[in-house]
Amino acid sequence: MITARAAASFDPVGRSVATARAFVRDTLQGWGYADVVDDAVVLTSELVTNAVVHAGTKADVLCLRSDDGVRVEVADRYPEREVPLLGSPADVAGPDRENGRGLLLCAALASRWGVEYTPTRKNVWFQLDLPNRPVGTRSAGPALPTALLPVTDGRVRVAVVQIDRAGAVRAWNEDAEELFGYPAEQVTGKALTDFAAWPHTPGTSTGIVEALQLSRWEGTYGIRGADGRVVPVYASHLRVRDTEGEPSTVCLLVRDDERAVLQSPVRQPATDPVALGESRNVDPFEVFIGSPAPDDLDGLLQRTVERARDMLDGDSAFLLLATDDETELEVRATTGLPSARQRFARVPVEAGTGRYGSARMPAVHEDLAAVPGAVPLLESTGMRSVVTVPLKVEGRLTGSLGVAAESPGRYSNEEALRLQFAADRIALAVESARLGELERLRRGSLSFLVEASDLLAGTLDRDQTLALMAQMTVPTLATWCAVYTIADQASDPYLSYVLHEDEERIDGLKALLSKINPPEPVPTPGARVWTAPGEAAHHAALRVSMRDLGRSGSPHTGGGLGTTLSTAAAVGGETVVLPLVARNRVIGMLTLGKPSDDHFRQEILELAEDLSRRAALALDNARLYSERMAISRSLQRSLLPPGLPQIPGVEVEVIYRAAGEGNEVGGDFYDLFPIRDGAYGFAIGDVCGTGPEAAAVTGLARHALRLLAREGFGGPAVLERLNAAILDEGARSRFLTLLYGELWPQEDGSAILKIVCAGHPLPLRLRQDGSVEPAADPQPLLGVMEDLELYEQTITLDPGDVLLCVTDGITERREGTRMLGDDGLTDVLASCTGLTAGAVAARVLRAVERFAAEPASDDMAILTMRIPEQAKR
């Protein structure tokens, strides 16, 4: 009778085999069938490999639970049968073949098995029966003397936390309050991820969200307590559902050093030599690690230290992996020690001159109290005796394995030989898993750097570049970061940006860093340790704690203790500084930090160094761009008139739009200036082209017009001399169309204008009756011929009349094949009767913008002059 089922499909890719193994393992452990998990995982692995690797199709895995065992079915989309050749049965499923072993294993391990074919698929199934056991017995360990039982710190507390479908906390018992410091009402409804300190590095994908979705999961992580410190815990997750079918996850949490309370015992391999000889050859690696071995490096290392501790009956164990240059060892797994504090800490391979000071040789320390500092990892842990052995692959040091005890004299050379024998069996598997993890990290790092480069290249804004630098490092590379910038060689480093993964700690962190001297701007590449933040935070926490306890005369300030302790915990780990070097100059420093007693791993520091080089260049590019834009804007503003004069009895309005991003002045220009008492000059022109080259001729023309007009030259003489100046520029000269005029307001309210239109769009006059007519005749443009014969025309603007002067960016506004033109501009002006000069200019600009959907590609200038009706006397 089938009592439960679980099904999943896996794509035809290599990683699906490991995913299928995890699916079957988690499903059977969730059902309480730990006795058949190992065999089920082995068979599933072989059958799924046949489907996704050899057959190249999807694999459908179905697990069926019954009262007496479990049935697992693996189906693929390759229905053809393999027909054996007559006389060669060994070719069908030999043990040395790359494929076909799945069916041999089924025959050897399963209670029953079979193969079913349909026109579209092939289904291989196997049945594993449960062993007969007394009712109520699941697993048991040997009876141990009291002195050998695991040691706990006071009462053992088991936190019971229930997580709903969305990942939010729904239940939080009293032991959870005691362990982590949060009352139930403070955490209920919040996501567990807000409190969990889950390891996160580039290239790894499993997180707490995924772990909460598994039917059963056991492992180690941290919970950030109310005091800001991370409490290492061992967790057992069980996925359940209520009577309404709503799923939730029940999490049992104990302190990491009390994991024996929750940890499920792993089935030991058979040790009967006869039985082993009859069934199969025994792999020494599996004898030590157990079968199946963990798929991931962290799981393999954790299983290794736990087995090593149990094998030598120790109180703790640790495993360190060597860096690529074999100069340092990095702590990667511990048991019985504060793992969160020690993880990724580094110690030198050669710590002394004797054989006991080198990790390359086995070593036994009978009493660490007699040789302080012999094993830095065990300082202040209470361990007295220790045995360490190297892990080597082909003569190269790859790591170190050690077991320690709280009592002296526990280990001798005999234990060292046993531990070395085990280390030799696992060294190759550990190195293979380490290389696999390193490859995944490097692929993740490359992806991370490509994305970072794209983001940094997408902006030239300095502040945005600083924010991107910080957001890319937190929390991917570090818990917090600070960016210091250096304006020039004579300036001190300035704290420009601070970010922490917990936003509530940013202000406290910024205040702390502002009170200490910044790191030295050393151009040497690579990360260097900076101890000042941690020391400053420690002293600040000590002072505030003493004041809070009333040990000093300082007045008590409420709320300061919690903030100071939180900041101290945030910067209490390792802090490193990386120089930001661009164009052979240190332009700043990138500071990365970890929380209390945590360390950076070497791969993360290398990735941070790559990021700092890219970020430095992006930051310097943003600085150069800002400086050049400031210079450009300053120069461009100098080409515009400082302001428009007030002309008695005349309304004047100017609208100017330069084409091109970042341009304030282009080839179009205007000017309005007093010549002498009662006389004013005005001009509007268009230099051929746009951008800086056209702006240079613009400056020449505007300043020359003012100078010549104030020297008393008339309009034609002014333009003829300007034409000669433009031609003197030689290859830098540009064509110039120019409308120049002089204006004299009259006592009767009218105004007399003398105008010269040198190749420019003709000015338009709007009369009170709504009629529109050109106010001048066209004449040759400037910058082409040496000898010009120009003349000026005189017109009178009566009260209510409007004179509109524009550049060709207005009249040549296009939408496809249509162009606004002179006629379109005339129609727009004819509708402006009775409007002020400002309203006329605004209506013309609005009509031009609405004429086409695309942004204007040419400079535009509008100069409007109107004689108000009330000015008439």
Please provide a written account of the structure.
This protein has 873 residues and is an alpha+beta fold. The chain is 33% helix and 25% strand. The strands form 7 sheets. Strands 7-6-11-10-9-8 form a 6-stranded antiparallel sheet. β6 and β7 form a beta hairpin. α1 packs antiparallel against α2, α9 packs antiparallel against α11 and α14 packs antiparallel against α15. The longest helix is centred in the middle third of the chain and has 45 residues. The N and C termini lie far apart (112 Å). About 5% of the residues have low confidence. InterPro entries: Bact_Sigma-Reg, GAF, GAF-like_dom_sf, HATPase_C_sf, HATPase_dom, PAS, PAS-like_dom_sf, PAS_4. It holds the Pfam family GAF_2. Keywords: Hydrolase.
Largest sheet: 6 strands, antiparallel
* Unreliable residue stretches: 81-99, 200-205, 267-280, 552-559
Tally of individual helices: 21
Strand fraction equals 25-35%
Distance between the termini: 112 Å
Could you say which overall geometry the principal axes of the C-alpha atoms support? Answer: elongated
For the biggest β-sheet, the strand order reads 7-6-11-10-9-8
SS-based class:
alpha+beta
How many DSSP E strands? 34
User: What integer value in Å does the Rg equal?
Assistant: 41 Å
Q: Tell me the helix content.
A: 25-40%
